[in-house]
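Treating backbone geometry as a discrete language has practical consequences that deserve illustration. Part of our work consisted of pairing the sequence of a single chain with a tokenised description of its backbone. What the numbers capture is local backbone geometry rather than side-chain detail. For completeness, the protein is quoted in full, as a sequence line and a line of structure tokens:
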Amino acid sequence: MQYAALVRPALDRVYSAMRMAAREQCRRVSEQTGLRPGLNTSFYFGLLARPMPAAAFAAVTAYSGGDMSDELAQGVMAVDGHGTWSLTPRGRDFTLALQQAVADGAQEHWGRAHIATMPGLAALPRLAELLAVLLEAGQATGGPAFAAAAPVYEPAGASYALRVSTRMGALRHHRGDAHRAAWAAAGLTLDELRALDAADPLRAAVEDDTNRRDAPVYEALTEAQRWEFLALLAALPG
């Protein structure tokens, strides 16, 4: 539990900063294709690998809403009678380009060494290796969103920046599943959760339960590897 709570802000810091740094590259892809990104830009690691079942769709859109009218209108995604979503051929080409754009942005962002002793891009091969272990372990402990996210799609010859950015995005859904399960187990709706004051004991209990549910994935690493993983995250710019 303690490690899951400790690693979460480090993972979120690195991933969110990287995605912000890649916005310009993603914008250029949209301009070149004339297409607007939607669910595919936040879940490309899973959608490029397999269709998304209805239960996974409900999970990944729980916080943002499930309006897919723009994706359907653009012809980038399709849904079948069972509520399973998939990329169309047009959407797949677009999403592959977005994945590469994110990787290119990550390569540039993580390559900026503000301090000479920071490893920068040299940290990526080992980080990719540890992330692969965590994604494999999550197959036994993750919920519906994680099951749709991993194994991730990576093209042949993928750079380490692409591997790390892709794997990191998928790993975050292990905690997302844990969080949704925690507030549901507490008998809360999402609106009720959001209405809780930050100091409310019930909110603290939900966070503790989230950490408990998220913790098993990190047990796939040895104690030394867990600290190494945290140190590698800390070595990347945020």
Notes: The mean pLDDT is 95. Residues 2-234 form one domain. Strands lie at 77-79, 85-87. The chain has one domain: 2-234.
